[in-house]
Amino acid sequence: MAAPATIDAVLDDGGFRALIHELQLRGYVVIGPAVRDGAINWQRIESADELPCGWTVEQKPGSYRLKPRDDERYFGYANGPAGLKRFLHHPEARLYSVQRNGEPFHIVDEQRKAPRRAFVGVRACDLAALKILDRVLLEDRYPDALYQHQREEAFIVAASCTDPSPNCFCSSMNAGPEIESGYDLLLTELQDGRFVARAATEAGGDVLSAVPHRQAAAEDRAAATAAIAEGRGKITKRFDPAAARETLYNRFEHPAWDRAAARCFGCGSCTQVCPTCFCVTVEDTSDIDGSKAERWRKWDSCFTLSYSYIHGGSVRQSAKSRYRQWANHKFAAWYDQFGSAGCSGCGRCVTWCPAGIDVVEVLAEVVSG
User: Fold this and answer.
1) d(Cα 116, Cα 150) in Å, to the nearest integer?
2) How would DSSP label each residue in 22-66?
């Protein structure tokens, strides 16, 4: 959508609540972060009351714990276990069905109408992940029609990240914490409860103009800039993706791969929570009487034995070969295929690995020799 001249405004708590209501009035299903099952995760919300106000998260490798904050900020937490991928690149999707109608078979046309979703609270790393998915699923020779259908209907309300976790390394991947593009509206939450809002698209400006706000002054913009800079200062994990790209192909037998594999369960948790992993498998099903058949697409993982199966067996039978393939694809081969890294530095693979394997530490060991 065309981008107008950038609009900066300030919302108080009432204006922010009105923003969510305005999105609903425009027919959007609002998806936002909410506390559920011991984590802050994306789900449908009806009002700002369902947001994780006053909650934050403590993260370490293999560890995620909710804890209360000392203030009532809505977005004072680091990312939860999932990005936006499951809403746009569905874990399961029926590609088509075939039904017998007398003698011939007929392909049943799938009439898909994507819901208009507004995602509220999207962080820089997840916007970077969407850019990576767009490159893979939209901008290649054969666009993914299912993804494209969902993506076109998405309205993005981004939120500046001011409380990253120790597992985050988005700054090393040039994916944050500053947000430069990819959103309709950008909110920076200040400690006094105000939001500095920026509209970057025509749709974003239209929504912003419909809710109570005042024009942002220079001191408001300065406060937002300071809050983002404070967030950047909290990112302590460092990584050199250029060094990894130059080195990984030549160190397939580095002992760091063996040490990582000795701890790896091969569960694929890292690929499930990764906001950029896009690999799928296809399954065919049919009724027992042969009257109907369906073809389904489902998420797959390069950590499963069946993923690399060809005639005669799996190519990557060891945990070492599968872990190495995943890391090499993210941080080396992806550049060759798509022109960028396949990682946005969100740190989810570190947090949600049940063995607490830190891919940054593994890669740093490989690169160091």
Assistant:
1) 8
2) HHHHTTPEEEEEEEETTEEEEEE-SSGGGS-TTEEEEEETTEEEE
Asked if 275 and 126 count as a contact pair (C-beta separation under 8 A), the reply is yes
Q: What are phi and psi of 61, to 5 degrees?
A: -55, 120
Kindly state the tokens that stand for 271.
């690929």
**The pLDDT of residue 4:** 44
Which residues is 158 bridged to in the sheet?
122, 186
Range list of β-strands (E), the chain = 7-11, 29-36, 39-44, 55-60, 63-68, 92-100, 105-108, 117-122, 154-159, 185-189, 195-199, 214-215, 280-286, 292-299, 309-310, 313-314
Query: CA nearest 360: which of 256, 228, 250, 231?
Result: 256
Q: What is the C-alpha separation between 350 and 369, in angstroms, rounded?
A: 22
Structure-block tokens of residue 349: 């693979």
d(CA 72, CA 194): 11
pLDDT (tens digit per residue) in 43-58: 999 999 999 999 999 9
Spans of the chain, pLDDT less than 50 = 1-5
CA angle 147, 45, 56 (to 5 degrees): 100
Closest to 53 (Cα-Cα) out of 37, 70, 38: 70
Q: Is 156 buried (19+), middle (13-18) or exposed (0-12) by CB count in 10 A?
A: buried
Nearest to 120 by CA among 184, 63, 67: 184
Distance between CA 341 and CA 170 in Å, rounded?
12
Contact 104, 58 (CB under 8 A): no
Q: What whole-number distance in Å separates Cα of residue 172 and Cα of residue 241?
A: 7
208, two tokens:
């912003």
pTM greater than 0.90: yes
